[in-house]
Records
---
Amino acid sequence: MADKYSADTIITETQKRISNAFDVFDHESNKTVDVREIGTIIRSLGCFPSEADLHDIIAELEEEEPTGFVRYEKFLPTMTKILLERKFRPITEDLLLQAFEVLDQQKKGHLEPEELTKYLTQEGEPFTQEEMDEMLSAAVDPDKNVILYKDFFH
Amino acid sequence: MRINCSNRTSLKGRSMKAAILIQRWYRRYVAHLEMRRRYTWNIFQSIEYAGEQDQLQLSSFFSFMLDNVTQMNGNGPDLISHLLDSVVDPLTEEVRQLKYEQIVVSESYSGPRLSFPLSVTDTNALLSAFKEEQTLHGKYVLQLLYETKKFLKQMPNVIYLSTSYAKEITICGDLHGSLDDLLLIFYKNGLPSAENPYIFNGDFVDRGKKSTEIIIILFAFLLLYPDHMHLNRGNHEDHIMNLRYGFTKEVMQKYKTHGREILQLLQDVFSLLPLATVIDNKVLIVHGGISDKTDLDFLSTVERHKVVPFLDSFVSLEPPEPPREELEWQQVVDILWSDPKNQNGCSLNSFRGGGCYFGPDVTQALLQKHDLCLLIRSHECKQEGYELCHNGQVITIFSASNYYEEGSNRGAYIKLGPELVPRFFQYQVSRSTRKLTLHQRVRVAEGSALRALKEKLYAQRSELMAAFQQYDIDNTGRISTSEWAQVVESVLRLDLPWRTLRPRLARLSADGNVEYGSCFEDISPGEPIPPVTPNLAETLYRYRTDLEIIFNIIDKDHSGQISIEEFRQTWKLFTSHLGVAVNDQTIDDMARSIDFNKDGSIDFNEFLEAFRVVHKLDVKEQQQG
């Protein structure tokens, strides 16, 4: 068995993880992916970039003349750096809970769908209607018609 | 980063930060789900195509048997004669028709009673009956098939249609036995009629449980509106495919008395289905695709009912094969089996075991040759029900929603008017009334895909363990993720993201290595298996489907029984072809042990059942639930 602690091994393992994730979206099997899937790939590798962060990354990854595709040769070094430098660290449950509590200004212990919708579609990096609908369908308690955010966390 | 920092930070600033955080978190959550959805899709597709490769294996086994036929004469099973035996019909057409008319339908039968020539009353009765889960009496099925056969005989191979007689033509893709999808299409788009013509582009049967109902409806409309209802043949309109993928079984289960005759008639009807449709001399519609050899003029001259893809190609040709017949077979197989690819060129479709991969240049050349502007085909499942490729010159249309699993994909159909600009309509059948969340849909589909994948692992267990152990010299039971992924990929030969899948398939130990034995943990045999060694059991499990097909061929009268001798000979041949060493004594013991009533014959369905597996976690759920 290889020495699991050598730097080389870590880099190789990281690159293999990246390669795997990339392949899932490489529909034509020619080592390119649609630029619109880059965000999904990066996030599925465990990173939590903001939309603005992604925008910057994609600008870096695109060709001189944008083709709509990103090549693996460009993606690999950029992504390796992101993972090894541990950029865009995960958002912890504590932090997420705090965020919900901030939005719950009246300290009700829950949020109304309209409240959450207002914040998430108007502030920050706004959700599309589709994103909002999908989140509500998963988050809203069907009986009480509110978002019991405390229940999301163990 | 803390949100509730200094008091000077405005409320608005804090709520904006909170919103961004939640948005960032949620988008990551959705991406994670999307990844799972994607690889679930990859799993289903890989396994499906691997199954089609098995089909090629089986065909090569049959040709292996043909090569060895001299050794088997007198001693071997009657398998060869069964295979060579084209449906020789001793009855003339008139006698056959009379025979069907004379079948008596009991008073207690409450289903539709068809009268020929069919009328709208009959098709309405059929639709109502099938919505209520009724079965059409065998007599009417036989009559319907007989009339359909008569009708199809006078059709050409390539049908030329025009949009000038109606506003728009509706084109549907694969249905694969999903009656719900067909009914949904009729509901959304209206029933076939002179004002509402339809083309169904093949693969009506197999996999789904209502293939019989589908073909009954389609053939009924075909007879009712011969100028406005058109059916193209698909690669599943073929009796060997039906043996493997479920249609034969469905017919035999629903029609105990007349099943065999229905199947024989179906064989003829399928072989008589037209191969292609052309609209306004501009749009070509075929089930699979094309190759660089495709020529519509040549295709029109082929005697299509004599050309049977796969098996009979090996059987019916006497060496040296007449070059024309070989070419005819090639043309038909290409039409029914090919898939488009993104790179230029035309290569053999090794995934499917038949037809080609054709590139944009091949499409362009064919369209130019025949002065066409568009190719519409089906044959491949697409998440959105349809997909364009080759710069919009090729459209794939697929009409069976939830094909792999609940929530896996939408179905779609095309409407084409005189301006020849396609409009797409999508839909998805849903079993539950409450809409599932994305998470729930992904979870269900993923569960199904992973179960199928685990069964694949189980089927190759000894090979996998042997390969794992090569990396595990100290016998710790653990190897690195890299090594695990490498082994699985090379043994299973499925092109999947194994590293990404690993958490769903195998456990990690405390030191971060993979406990390779854990991949096989939650599968076990369904029933106590006959006294065989684990290796033999595994081989039997792996080739269950092939054996089922072979046994079904031997068992001409579909009784579910074959003789012990036939079983022994077949198994011997099969294993020698596979290169698997099994000694005679073991086979004898096994054969004797499964002949439960000692009458010299075995119920092979029971036998095959013994080699089914169960997923332990499912069993636990059932016990608790």
---
Amino acid sequence: MNKPGQGGGGAAATTAAAAAATIHRQRALLQRADADIANLIDNFAHMLKAARVNDPVRNAQENFQMDIHASRVVQAADSLLKLVSELKQNAVFSDFISLNECIAERAARFEEQNSDTERLLLSVGEELGASLVELETLYYKSLQRLSPAEHQAQE
Amino acid sequence: MAKVTLDSLPLKRVLALEESGIELYPPESSQDEKPLSLLQSLDFERPDEKEAKKSKSGKDGASQWPWQGLIEHFHQAREELMTLLDFIAHVESNEALTVTHMMKPKPLPNEAGADLALRTASKSRSYKEIASYLKRNAKSLERQVERESVFYGALMRLQRNWKIKRQRGVSAGPGGKAGFLMDLSFPLSVDPSLISSSRTAAWTLIKVNQDANGLLSVQIPAGKTITTLQVYLSRELEEYTSKQQLEQPPRRRDNRDPDEGTSSANHRLRNIQLSIFDELIFECLCRDVLQPSSATSLHEIGESSLDIGAGPSIASFFRLVEDDAANDAALKEVDVKRLPLAGSLRIYLQQGFYSMLLASIVQRSAPGPRAGTGKEEPANLLKNFSVLARHRSAGDKIVSLLDTLVLQVPQLWFRSHPTWRPFVSAWDVYFDIPEAIMNGGQMKHLEWNALVRETSATFQCTLVLRQEILSIEGLDGCMPLGASGQESTGMKSCVCSVSELPFFLLTQIAGKVIGWLEEEAVLLGPRVKRDFLSIVFNIQNNGLVSLVAAPSGYCINWWLRFYSFGSDDTAAASGASAPASERFLGPLPLETLRAVVMDLAINL
């Protein structure tokens, strides 16, 4: 008696867990995106702050700092691109809604092609039959006819 | 001799220890006293000078220049000063002392401007280097973005047609392995006995790679090639053979245009899938032929070739040929004789196999118990193919027979009656006598609303070949002479074998011609009788003359037989008694026959 309920409850729990995992993952991705963007902006701001001309020692120090900030900017951009790749991969493997729609659309299109092909085949068959009748009538009612052996010999 | 003295270590040594345990340290000297103490520890005199001094003090005599002492003092002061300077320089370089104040000269305005310009230039150079670094990285990132957009766009388009899996442990990246696989395996609902094959196991997962431009490329597994199934039928013809150009199977061109990544990958995957299907069909045929219930005989079986006997004088050849390999080598093995279209046979096999797959999917996915599964026979691809091969062979024989008949018999013609079913073929056979011959060579004017006289000389029937059984339909009562099977008049169809078909048709035609000739002769006189395939003319007191039709081979031969006076009319008419004389006329045209009958009717 309780098994269907338990089964239904189990399915509902699985769905809820999956939904929670999805939300958590979505948040993690958003956080990653925000962190990368903030990182990028901060390092760029630091680079601009070091634009002031000071004494040589400080200038050398700031040069090293600018190199590091620039590499961090590039690193943040690369991380963002990897995030984009990951999102695209998720879209390839997890976008079931659009996949199902696409499959349904293709199935409908193939059904239509199937019926069109059948109609085309029927029409081709009718034309073939009519042409065959004409050709055979002409051939067998003509006075001069070649036997298959004579035809082959001519070839 | 040099003397080395060592200063005491800069350690705080305990001077005394009181009874209460308190340690007494020496007083620390102040910062000003430290250098003084260090200076005081300096000994400016050299040891040799000290010895010379001592010796001089002993030699002090009366001879002494009055200014000698001053000069010596000056020398000593100079040496002390030099020592001090060296000491200061040494101490300063070791940073034992800090220079608290240095008097530097004031920089000039141009020097200050130059210094600022130098610093600005160095800052500007560092910024330019960073800008170039960022530009290089931006370009490489842009290229990466383009590559990935092309790749993922193509992958998403491919995903609409194919099943994509991710290869674990490999990440997608530019110019390297993409980490994606195309799964070409069949769904679980398909009967495993149909798709189990060692050949196709390597084709199940196909790697998808990304080249340097980001385009998709499908990689064929090592050691595998795309193959095509070729089917041939061979039949030994008794009368003639004709070599026909074998129809080449359509080659599956591999589109290598790099600009069409998705379409080329799609094309290649489709070729691989078709190759898989062909290999599965081949495996299915091999399994079927090895079953004991198979109605075919096995001649030869190999890894990619199968020769079987589908029926009497019918051999079937199946070959798995690589697409790029020359097909001529495979064709030379086959003794090419008159062959049906090889492409249609391959299509029939493919369609049969697809039907079996679909039926297994429907059967497995249908809920509830399956009705009648124990009674139905499993679909046998080879059996159906053998039936088709035998049907085709029989159809070819019938067409060749009819061709020959039509050549030999004027006014006989036939036309194919397409049924569009694989195991049913039909032909309509017609025989009619032209109006000109019927009217004795005179054209007759017909009113537009005049009915066309229906004569008994018109003959029409339909030959229907179902699998290997030939039936003749549409006859006005079968003429059972020489025909096998059901023999009853008034039936619209009867069964006939292919070898007996010419004789059967000629008999029917001869009967029609005899009937027409009788009608023509009766108009001129009542002394004409008809007996099955002969017309008997009663000669006044002289006997009987009969014109007899004798179908033989592919034509109707005519005989003129004379029965002498005294013979029993009945016996003569029935042909039971031997004719007094007979004359072989051979195959005569209809107008000649009519003329003969007219002459006989008029003169006799």
---
Amino acid sequence: TVKDLPLPRFVVSKNEQESRHTALYSSDADNPASYSGVIPPPPGRIQVKKGSVSHDAVQQRTSTDQQESTSPVVSPQQSPPTSPHAWRKHNRHPSGGNNERPLAGPGPFWAPFNEAQPGSSTTNDPIWSGHSPPPHQENWVSFADTPPTSALLAMHPASVQDQTTVRTVASATTANEIRRQSSSYDDPWKITDEQRQYYVNQFKTIQPDLNGFIPGSAAKEFFTKSKLPILELSHIWELSDFDKDGALTLDEFCAAFHLVVARKNGYDLPEKLPESLMPKLIDLEDSAETGEQPGEVGYASSPAEAPPSKSPSMPSLNQTWPELNQSSEQWETFSERSSSSQTLTQFDSNIAPADPDTAIVHPVPIRMTPSKIHMQEMELKRTGSDHANPTSPLLVKPSDLPEENKMSSSVKYTAGSTVTDGYSSSDSYTSDPEQIGSTVTRQRSHSGTSPDNTAPPPPPPRPHQSHSRSSSLDMNRSFSVTPGRQQQAGVVAYPPAVPPRPQPSQGPGPHVHRPVDAEGLIAHTTSTSPQQIPEQPNFADFSQFEAFAVSGVNKDDDDEIETHSESLQVEKSSDSASSLRVAKADGRVEDKVPANVPTTAGKGTTPLAPPPKPIRRRLKSEDELRPEAEEHTQKTGVIAAVLASQPSIPRSVGKDKKAIQASIRRNKETNTVLARLNSELQQQLKDVLEERISLEVQLEQLRPFSHL
Amino acid sequence: SCAPPQNYPLYIRSVPTENELKFHYTVHTSLDVVDEKISAMGKAMVDQRDLYLGLLYPTEDYKVYGYVTNSKVKFVMVVDSSNTALRDNEIRSMFRKLHNSYTDIMCNPFYNPGDRIHSRAFDNMVTSMMMQVC
């Protein structure tokens, strides 16, 4: 029945309202009618008032204008902001022919606006659609129109809606129109198509170029014609001049015009610019009709919602924006300025999920030096191997991505010849594959490098990454012999990543180790890649990795871990580590248990620092044991332990895993830190932009005040 | 408090409603101190650092900070001395926000320079700022 509310009646009332503006509350019946005629003020607001004022009023209206029936409707329909309804009604009514009536009041200036109204109502519906069938929406619209003037700024969507519904019912004539319009619910502040077209036309009269600006003075004259008090015009200006540049773009102008119309119809001005009125960088049509609605629901004049919606350019994001904003208050400070905050926020959220496993190669500053040292150590240790030194760094590389230094070296190694380091990685690499193939316990070789892990804290994941990436696929293939460890693959991917850096570190003959490590890494890698990567920068990490591998790559596969560790080790021991690794690699190669088992064992050993070469050998043996010690969880502890006690390879079995885990954690932490840093920088950027704007303004002010 | 060259306040706001008159008086008297500093500063007044005048006048209960814009509009802030958490940087940032808001007001073509400031946005900004320190 509510639907039956005489929309037409509303139309009539609209006209009255228009003339009245302020008399909404006083005469419910009248207001609705007159209101509808006038430029549809944000229905939400008024309705809220109405609703709050009294259901009686509504009921009265209903009785008179059949709006009363809407009151019951009001409550349920609170969700959609009533204001949109009101607007819609206005639009509808005008279409019903009522427009002319209300327009009479404001005079020529506003008349055209009213005319524009009729068509605009269509867009209002979407908002309500969710709440009620179109007919209802219509009602709402009409209803909303009635209480335009009530001073309640806060639109209570519920009340407004109800009212609108009532009204819509009341206005039978426009019912049809309303239905059409109600199809699209929009918030009270939504600008209908007709309205917008009208605004655009007015804009053209002042500024033919639609992409240009209307200077403040011209806008002032134009809006002064509306006969609103200067104070209100000033407030409208503050709301609509989004970028605070003293000029109005088309969007800003439309928003300002819309606000003026609303005010003239009795709607109170909101404290914050409604989302639907935000100057959208996107096409107005789209944003107005689509983006606004989502954000506008229940928003209309509620300041609370305004904050997040300062990003005009992304109406669609508005909805998500608020969520983001809430999460990042910092953005709100910028919200005034632009949508950048939105973008930023979203960016933040994107950054948030730092997935260590995904070869997070974020630019974590990896310590090359330590790694180099490790590498050297490892290499020294490995001197036994025949591989050329350059290769050793390559071995380390498996995690190279993040650690360029190590990576490069290791990458080369793992990648095999592909690395451009100049290392004779290819040589070493090839050697490794061979080893790998022969020894499943490649991981162990990694573990050999793990001793390096202890030294450099850098995110172990990196080495892993390298594994995945750089660890030349070749290695994978080569390793495929062994139980297709992912690690191998990882290791393979690993090496190619960091070609340039390893060179310096590689110098010492870690190459030999590298190959071995690479192999091992490859075996482990995939799983532990993230760990490896961080380790790359530090050979120490690598050693840890190895240790992990030895200790048992619980995480993914022992192989992987080992590969990681190996890779890490490879990297780490660019110098010393390499030697170590070599030793390990040797061991590993022998054991070369591509299967996880061996790797873990190897990893256990790797965690130990490169220095303890002999330990490495033990690690190797442990590598074999590792498979058993796959308690992955130990990794974290292992890593720490490894770092701390590199010599204690024996217990590295569990440590490898821990090391890997630790490296993963480190990477994650690094990610979050970087994300935070990024957000902070963005904030700073905003601040700077604001300052710039203020300075520009000051500059302008200075001119007239030059005499001071 | 925001005062133009003619030294009449465009905007005065205080959080604790009591002793408001005292604050008003303090602000007015501090304008003299501001004028002194301005005259002593010379011509160049474009630098933000120059705009910030710093602690003007520490009394027994409170401190007075000053800030002047390029157009000789003065901002005076009185803070309670017990609020030791307020650092100079915070004061500066608050003044900068005030200045930004003021420039936003100036952008409004409906605003005549010299009018009292009624902008709601400005009010909100000031309120939020005061809430931060209180």
